[in-house]
Amino acid sequence: MTQTTAYPPNLALPPAARPGDPLTAVDTPALVLDLDAFERNLDRLQAAAGAAGVALRPHAKAHKCPAIALAQLRRGAVGICCQKVSEALPFLAAGIADIHVSNEVVGAAKADLLARMARQGRFSVCVDHPAQVAALAEATARHGSALAVFVEVDIGQGRCGVPDAPAVLRLLDALAAHPQLRFGGLQAYQGGVQHVRRQADRRDAAQRAAARAGEVVAALAQAGVACPTVTGGGTGSVEFDLASGVYTELQPGSYVFMDGDYGRNDASSAWRFEHSLFLACTVMSVGDGTRVIVDAGLKSLAVDSGLPTVWHAGAESPQLVYAAANDEHGIVRCRDAAAPRPELGAQLLLVPGHCDPTLNLHDDIVALRGGIVEAIWPVAARGLSR
Ligand SMILES: Cc1ncc(COP(=O)(O)O)c(C=O)c1O
Questions:
Q1: Which CATH class is domain 35-257?
Q2: What is the model's pTM?
Q3: Among 13, 23, 209, 307, which one has the highest count of C-beta atoms within 10 angstroms of its own C-beta?
Q4: Which among 45, 64, 83 is the best mutation to test ligand 1's pocket, defined by most ligand atoms within 8 Å of the CB?
Q5: How far is the CA of 236 from the centre of ligand 1 (A)?
Q6: What residue owns the CA closest to ligand 1's atom 12?
Q7: From ligand 1's centre to the CA of 346, what distance in Å?
Q8: Is 107 in contact with 138 (CB distance < 8 Å)?
Q9: Per DSSP, which regions of 180-319 are E strands?
């Protein structure tokens, strides 16, 4: 979020780092991005999508960072997804004109903002109820804008979405009265598949989910309705979704960073994305010698998907375990009581368990190549959750 805090004269908060600084000089806690690994992740998925003839519309909820979205678009992504209407604002401001709000929108304020943004770009949104259609129709008519509308189908997650083709057809009837609302197709996302650990189990679950989407597409075709786009999928299912023959567009987000939770999925080397995002932290106390205390806790790390792992020399540290998170402190223990432990002031790198909510805690990403800071990227959609 834009920093609006007023500071005393000459005492503005300095940036965590400046281009040219070494990693060791980054003021912590700070999110640091290994640009080489990050770019390999982007290239790998874009190449696979291109080879499968499936469009890639990466999800920006994972990074909330326009510089990252622009890097994805430069490689061939057709646009981006945002999960919230307000989240799209900084991406639109950065010149990204093709944005799918992969979510239902309820409430006059949100419909109004979306309709206003749709005057400046190609926007689409999901519905699963006629009242949402009515609100979008009213707002777009008022602002003279147009939207592509996707009907979300529940393919097993039990979250948003209608259950079947008859329910889709009822929503298409509601859409038909509003020429400014074009049927974009179906959204079919099954979040419950993404972290199924065994690859074979994940494949089976992803195939079951895609088959449910395929049944709806086939039933609509029988009723004379073509689905221009079927969009969905995430980092854990993307290899199966690309081969499904059902999806025409995929929405993975976390593959850019590969957080700790995704790192615990069993995946073939072709589909193993690299950890590119770390939280740099500093040993701020060595306690009584049984532990070290780092300056990164709950206010700089999300732990809903597990505590972070400590990263050392390109791999998970065999010795150091991040054992507990307090608000501003992290307790790091050594597996071997006799092993040397990090000294006061030492910098440690943590792999966050869950990237999306971790990014939402930070103003900037410090992007490095070969251990040298190359750029500071604002997490411009941080906090934009309306
Ligand atoms: C609708 C939708 N699409 C795509 C994604 C991207 O998933 P991931 O970051 O796991 O790749 C999510 C994640 O929650 C989602 O909710």
A1: alpha beta
A2: 0.97
A3: 209
A4: 83
A5: 9
A6: 234
A7: 35
A8: no
A9: 181-187, 229-232, 249-250, 277-285, 291-294, 309-312, 315-316
